Amino acid sequence: MEKDLAFEESLRAAVDTEIAAALTESEDPLRPHRAVMDRVRLMVAAYLWPASSGVGDPRLIEAARRGTRSLRRLQGPSGLFVGGDNVDSPPDSAFTINDLCDTLRLLETVPHGRTPETDALGRELGVIADAVEPALIAGGVHTPNHRWEVAAALARLYRRRPSGALAERAALWLAEGIDIDTDGLYSERSANYAAYVSNPSLSVIADVFGRADARAAVVRNLDATLGLIHPDATVETVHSRRQDQSMRFGLAPFLGLYRRYAVELGRGDFAWAAERAGEQGILHPASLLTDLLLGGRLGERLPDAVAPAPRGSWARSGLVVDENDRRRTVIFGGSDYPAAGRIRSGLATNPTFLRMFAGGAVLDSVRLSRDFFGLGPFRAGTVTDLGDRWRLAETVSANYYQPMDDDDRDARGEYALTDDGRFYGSMSFGERGRDTVAMTTVVDVVPTEEGAVLEVTIDGPDLPWTLELAFRGGRFEDPSVQEGGVVALESGSATYRASDDAIVVTPDAGYRANGVAAYRPGEDYAYLGATDALTGDRLYLTGRAPTRIRIELRAERRLG
């Protein structure tokens, strides 16, 4: 085994920095149980690691024991931990117990000079594990990834002290089948939960119970994620069904996963991803150091890095990536909104349908909003490959209701409180005749060597629309920028430049602005006084429907 000395040095620096900060911090009685246990794990791992500046330092064990006592105080009568918005939560407690069990294993298996203090720490952690075990065997979950976090905690508890009850309960969760689709993405389609929950959990389940299916799922997901890594080392999230759908998510949280499987499988493309993740720094030194000390191959030298082959689409997520040397274009048509008709946690509802990367100039989002009964911006539920283009389409409608028929009237004026699809009213909507007003929007994205062409068609009543293009990385060169980084394009073209890279936006020659340059989030947000609007550098095109407009997006780059 050849060590990766550069990785070890980066890890040592990150560990030493966190330890130095932790030793000077005062106790925080409001610190959440997961953060408390993460700090205890870090102290123990640094105490045991020969490369750490804190190796053998009794202050670390003293701090770990204080943290353990704080953790015990956060344990309720059921053994589950108190705190957070999920009350008496087996999955939230499982996160902490996973770290706790790894810490116990460190104390039991890593060579070190045993002291009464380390033995006492082990006993104190063991009491916490014993108290929570029945609740994790019996408890339930409420999100897809929680099944694997709880099953991982059961696996670690089993590794500590094997029992049939632990193995059988983990097997029950696994019997549901791992929620990974044919694209290699988990059902939540979230980079965040893949990196922090599903992949680490399934990895330990595979290690403890010998589950080849769990290991295969992890490798498939890491393989699928390769194609979602952008030039700025972020992972695409627009298709996610979780909170990260509106965030930029860096590659760094995938560092340990890509390192482990690159070494174990000898995969150069995973090594490429690990190297890029490492360039962003080490975010979670406690986790990486624990894996290193517990005998994994995380610290071995990586295979030679090989850039992954481009991948075109993730059909189940409605996601397409089209790239060449000049630009990388992302097209999204997998929104859950057309089917669900609402904004909810657990649904993919980001209205961004296109991104483009051109070196330092990044078109981060293209959105189309319309004033149509408050139904919000364009969100396509499908993306269709037409050979030379990708088509996104959506039809929305609203109703006007007729008077009640004689037999359905109520002289008291009392009618059922029912859902119109946009709002509730005491109108017994289902018993009325209706007049429907509909609008169909079609956006064709035509890839070109230098970028893409958007062909937007809106068929429906006369109404205003706004196309919003949000940028980052540079500044608008032309035309002039208004307050808040906004450019309202009246006619002609606009250029967004970052050094030698630029993206030029050119609508039809006949385009003339006709409307207010503002994004409209729809009634789902406006009713609550909220918004999902973007900030920063934004370009707006405006007009009225019905309309057909063609917009060219051209990447200008100095290559070579």
Q: Overview of this structure, please?
A:
The protein is an alpha+beta fold and 560 residues long. The protein is built from 14 helices and 18 strands. Strands 3, 4, 5, 6, 7, 8, 9, 12, 13, 14, 15, 16, 17 and 18 form a 14-stranded mixed beta sheet that branches. The mean pLDDT is 94.
Brief write-up:
The protein has 560 residues and is α+β, with helices and mostly antiparallel strands. It contains 14 helices and 18 strands. The protein starts with a helix and ends with a strand.
Q: List the quaternary state of the chains.
A: single chain
Q: Main β-sheet, in a few words?
A: 14 strands, mixed
CATH class of the largest domain: Mainly Alpha
Helical residues, percent: 25-40%
Enumerate the spans where pLDDT stays under 50 for 5 or more consecutive residues: none
What's the gyration radius in Å? 27 Å
Per CATH, which architecture of the largest domain? Alpha/alpha barrel
- Domain module tally: 2
The dominant shape is globular
Task: Give the class from helix and strand content and strand pairing.
Answer: alpha+beta
According to DSSP, the number of beta strands is 18
Tally of contiguous helical segments: 14
| % residues in beta strands | 15-25%
Find the CATH topology of the largest domain.
Glycosyltransferase
Name the average pLDDT. Answer: 94
